[in-house]
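Run folding on both entries below.
>entry_1
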Amino acid sequence: MTRKSPSRAVIAALAPLAIAMAVLAAAPSALAQFEQQQTKLPPTPTSSDKPPALIQYGVLVVLTGGVVALSIMKSKREVRN
């Protein structure tokens, strides 16, 4: 019994199926990699990027004092009768 090689038409017809099977075979490993990347937590910062509260309150007092001083200051325009 001699074996015939498959015709080009059969090979061409089965090529998309072979590609689909290869993609499906690789899908579980790709999904596992994706899940592994999703479970990683971002690094926690070691130092705080926010300035201390005392500095924030100091800036608040200085700005509020400036606004109050400007609003209380006498206007240089005087009314002349």
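>entry_2
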Amino acid sequence: MNTVTLPANRERQSGVELLKILAIFLIVFNHVTQTLQVENLYIPYHDYVIGMPSDTGMTFLQFLLMSFRYSGTLGNHIFFFCSAWFLLDTNHGGTRKMTRIASDTWALSWSICLLTALILKGNLPASRILYQLFPILAQGNWYVTYYLFFLFLYPSLNFLIRRMNQRNMLRAVLALGLISRAFIRCNLAIWVVFYFLIGYMKIYLKNFCADVKKNLVLLIFSASSLALFTSLLYALSLRVPSASSLLYPLMLGYSFYNPFLFLIVIALLNLARSIPMQSRLINNIAGHSLFIYLIHENDLVRTYFRPWIWQKIYIEGGYSHIILCIFAYSAALFLCSLALSVFYTSVLQKSVWRIGDALFGRVFRLWEKLELRLLSLH
């Protein structure tokens, strides 16, 4: 059986790290916009909410905000594609990485829970406290939960990819893509499809991945097609106002499966890899991406603090410059989360990792014993 050898390149590329910084800002931008659109049942005020389209029609501002929210899926895809490109080079499991991500997630969740309880003087619903105590099991941040499962799975996927020929890998990408799109509807399953697709690109489309001109064409084509698709949906809502409420599932409900978005990400990744740049500052900021995500999208932050800020903006200045407010709010939230992340990694992280390594090390040892027991069955 032929085994495919993947080119190893574990040096951090600042072009790719810069793309990760863009990705986390896009995610923050999406969540700031989402807070503005979705009514929060855990707070008593909703003056700041612009709302979603209804059967009576859709305003241009509502359409624009929905278009902004493509940024969340785009950012998530960028993160996964960048991670997958480098995971394909590794030959060992990700248990150490899993342990540290889980430890950081729990530590930040519990810290934010304690601070919020102090600020709100203990006035927290039990459901929100449970989310904070068990952030991974409760999927308080779905991306982190799925990514931990994927780290457990990817060595097996690498084993399969290295033993497939080109035709079998292409068939796997197409078949898994159709199955996951039509039947499973699970983001983790879509990631498996993406992983095979990235493996196919890395092994069999090397010339295309290195061709800047072709990737620029792909980026322009994909972005233009997405803009055209979105504009046609808006034109439909103007012609048939009762169809406006259907635009949410068409634009955002299925955005994770939107082919134009992941074609954009493929082009961006290949273009970022072609940038001959090394920057310690960019690499350091990108290294905080996970913590920026965990802080700004913590369940208590999105439930209490993000709506409170929008309410203040609405009362103090109104929405006459709402687009500028969204960008400024997103930038401020990004920078505040980055500052808190720097504080956490500088002061608390090493202690958290020592505790996490001890606790999760026992869990993984128990898991290995279970595997051995199962392997001994005949």
